[in-house]
Specification:
Chain lengths: 536, 536
């Protein structure tokens, strides 16, 4: 039991959160949209607090931003200040940040500017690029509570390895972002910082567990973001918030210094990866990190540099419209049909992808999330006495206490399933699978219960990238399918949750999945597909 | 419980073993060395049963053998017949084989010869190369009992993936080899086929668990061999028998189709790799396998092709003379001192390697071998009612039933230990570690209890290659150190086991260890070292 009530324990974190906001950059009371205004995505443009240059900077890709700084057109200080200002508005409207690191960020920007002034050179490929980072990724000397009240005294002894490598390349970390209790929700609420909401529709979830990152990138509070993903935690936020996100193959990106309950669980590996506002920024992030050979410090990593892959449309895309368990909502179905038609018209080989027993895959991955029956997470929750949230209970119920031998048996099943899925892709000649990220465009707050559209690629350990379709929920085109007869209770639950008016303005995203270790090829193919869709 | 006495169950396997021997190739009674003749390594040369050409063939490296066949100088049939004849003598003297596959081998040789006759070309880089293979590596349609009486009805449904790839390259599998009960001895005896002995001294163990392979390569019954290694099972046999053996980094060589109790245990991975009679044959084996991209079938493998590495002597070797737990016997110490002096004289940078807490490493790996407390192995042994052998009990005692969370904790410790060892190598500027393979040159039968000199590299997952020093136990030079005071009970046990007269003629081997994933560099460095030693 806790020594003090949990409500006391969180005060320091809340105070850090509040006090780290620069009040000068807040929207004045008369500029704050009313609670009824759900879509706040354009507030930065309409509020008048950001200059035209600040708007331009925050809507520029990381890659282009670095070019501007390298050319001396923008300074790092200007860039970071622009993002800090926009992020402050984001915080007011979305509650996405756990902590701003304004002082450190501006000090580093000044250093970079001084370096550039003296040498005429940038320090690395991410010179001056502001990056937001999920709270449980260690930042030296700062609290890392990982969404648990019991851990509010936990200070990270050093930066996570990924953070170090990005800093080496010139990146600036200016804001840390929110995550759900236990980190096992596709939603974003905890007892310390409360609930983060979606910039496109504040009644909707930003996704999770990297929900603060989804909101951050969706609202353009950062040029790049860092999330983690064991069941969809990078991808759901990227999709829900209209940004980009990448789940790499496990053991490619350095994970050291991420603070997560249940360390040593290796049957399903949590991965770390980028969120962004373009596919080329994902490549920039990945190449910057892997060019530094992180495997020479984190020895479990695979020594595979990030390859340059020339995009070509000589590939076959399988369209997975429905996983056979839960039928996606109408906007998702429309988005996939749109892609199928446009790609075919552009000469890309498109086939239907019949899912390979996703229910079998889910029954393997589900118990592997908590093979100790969730005892580890429950004991941390009990330590502080904080209330267990409904979605935490929901996730912990996936598990039961397994014996070591039962865990082995699931590992064997997992390997067989991976081999079977890979063989199916080869047999059918499919290089990439284009599929939903979630049953719908975004979940209502507190409701993302269905993980299979993302988690299936975690058990398969296949790289998956999220990118926006450019389409949004349309009240006319995306009506309820009144004649649909749900196949099972889960399908019924998710079917009944849909009505177009609940999801006004929400963006429609795609998930593109490649084969194991074909990370570079997957991003390259997504670029080709996005290019074709943009031209259509 | 078994339906029939275990002594009945094994009869079919024994009959296969006996009947598969071509009686025409056996040594006649008057040529069989007496039981007192311990060293039988020269019998093939002295017995008169092999022609000069057959002797030449069986003493040629796989690489050179292929060149001869490619030039039309030797036929595959000649090559395979030569090895079958030599292996038959080996079987008489060493009991290393569980089964000859003479008919299949000769049929395949005839096919290869026909192909060469028609096309003038060899089928691949291992055209006509005879390979012996450890019994638990699946061969389609043949019994795979893995050293357990309970499994004598287990028929492999297909060839192991590694076997398939080697066959694709032209290799011929002519003999399957013995292994110990449970596969967890550094020795080679089971209740089905009995005991395999060492060709240099038949009172000594050939090592284990790939002991049949050690004997096979030591006696030159095959040009290449396949073993498996989770604690030293490729390396101890290679060292004890004076041949070469390679434990690659895990997840490089294809493991699919190896039949082992406890599948799904992933904390310490069993690896498969070659035994040979030269370092260049190890490279040939590895490149042949990895050039076929086995990761496109076995999806857990890392997609790293075998790199060509140019040997250079620009590296630093750390000499590990003593692991701080058990002091090696005098011949091992002499061998390492010899290498240190010769290498220094040749201008190689040699430093002393102070071991990084090998006792800590052993305490992590030991419980991970049997995190179910050995329940899996015990239940298989109970199923047939076969007697449990003392070395099986010894190994199973390493384990206790762990919870999943205890297993996680050991995984975390393992990762920390790996990172610490790697950091020490970097800090001290050491590229490779030259060290003992075992406390002594070989163990007496039934006595290999001390695994740490090999197992430490399993927990560290570092590549390790065994090669002979060219030296052998010398009754004058390798006297007992009478003034040595053992540091602990284990040290005392091993110290008291040594006397030069027990190990007459046994070869002295080296183990060279590289960094994680530096497999190619490790073999290349071993080649440089061997070349220098040969010239000295």
């Amino acid at each position: 039991m806790a020594n003090q009530p949990w409500q006391e324990a969180i005060k320091e974190c809340q105070s850090i959160q509040e006090n780290s906001v620069n009040k000068e950059w807040l929207l004045p009371a008369d500029k704050i949209p009313s609670a009824e205004q759900l879509n706040v995505i354009d507030v930065p443009k309409t509020c008048g607090l950001l200059t035209a240059k600040e708007l331009e900077i925050t809507e520029t890709s990381a890659g282009d931003m670095v070019k501007k700084m390298a050319a001396g057109e923008w300074t790092a200080t200007e860039v970071v200040t622009s993002f800090l200002k926009r992020a402050t508005i984001g915080q007011q409207l979305l509650n996405f940040a756990t902590e701003f690191m304004t002082e450190d960020a501006l000090a580093r920007a000044a250093e970079l500017d001084a370096h550039f002034k003296t040498t005429g050179k940038i320090v690395g490929p991410l010179h001056g690029v502001p990056i937001s980072v999920k709270e449980h990724v260690g930042i030296k000397g700062r609290i890392c509570h990982t969404g648990y009240v019991a851990w509010v005294k936990n200070i990270a002894p050093e930066d996570a390895l990924l953070v170090k490598l990005l800093k080496n390349a010139g990146a600036i970390f200016h804001v840390r972002t929110n995550e759900p209790q236990s980190l096992m929700h596709l939603d974003c609420t905890n007892n310390i910082h409360g609930t983060t909401v979606n910039p496109w529709n504040r009644k909707l979830s930003p996704g999770g567990s990297s929900g603060g990152e989804g909101a951050s990138l969706g609202f353009k509070c950062a040029a790049l973001g860092i999330g983690t993903d064991i069941g969809g935690s990078i991808r759901a936020p990227a999709a829900f918030c209209g940004s980009y996100g990448f789940r790499p193959t496990a053991l490619r990106n350095p994970y050291k210094g991420v603070i997560l309950a249940g360390d040593g669980q290796e049957s399903i590996k949590c991965v770390i990866g980028p969120l962004s506002n373009s596919l080329s920024d994902i490549e920039l992030f990945q190449s910057t990190v892997l060019d530094q050979e992180p495997w020479d410090e984190e020895t479990s990593l695979v020594p595979l540099p990030w390859k340059e892959v020339t995009p070509t449309k000589e590939f076959t895309v399988g369209i997975l419209r429905d996983d056979g368990i839960v039928r996606p909502h109408p906007p998702i179905t429309r988005g996939l049909e749109h892609a199928a038609q446009v790609l075919k018209a552009a000469g890309v080989k498109v086939v239907e992808w019949e899912p390979v027993d996703h229910s079998v895959g889910w029954e393997i991955v589900k118990p592997l999330y908590f093979p100790d029956g969730g005892a580890c997470q429950r004991s941390i929750l009990e330590e502080s006495g904080e209330p267990i949230m409904p979605l935490t209970e929901w996730a912990l119920d996936y598990g039961r206490q397994l014996t070591v031998a039962e865990n082995w048996d699931l590992n064997v099943q997992r390997e067989e399933y991976r081999a079977r899925y890979h063989a199916a892709m080869k047999e059918r000649g499919v290089d990439f699978i284009l599929c939903p990220t979630y049953v719908g465009v975004a979940a209502e707050l507190g409701t993302p219960h269905y993980w299979v559209y993302t988690a299936i690629w975690n058990i398969l350990d296949q790289p998956a990238v999220i990118f926006p379709s450019g389409l949004h929920v349309d009240q006319e085109l995306d009506k309820i399918e009144t004649d649909y007869k749900p196949r099972n209770d889960v399908d019924k639950r998710e079917y009944e949750r849909y009505a177009p008016e609940k999801f006004v303005d929400a963006p429609i995203a795609y998930q593109l999945v490649g084969k194991h270790y074909k990370d570079e090829e997957t991003i390259a193919a997504a670029k080709v597909i996005e290019e074709i869709l943009k031209k259509a």
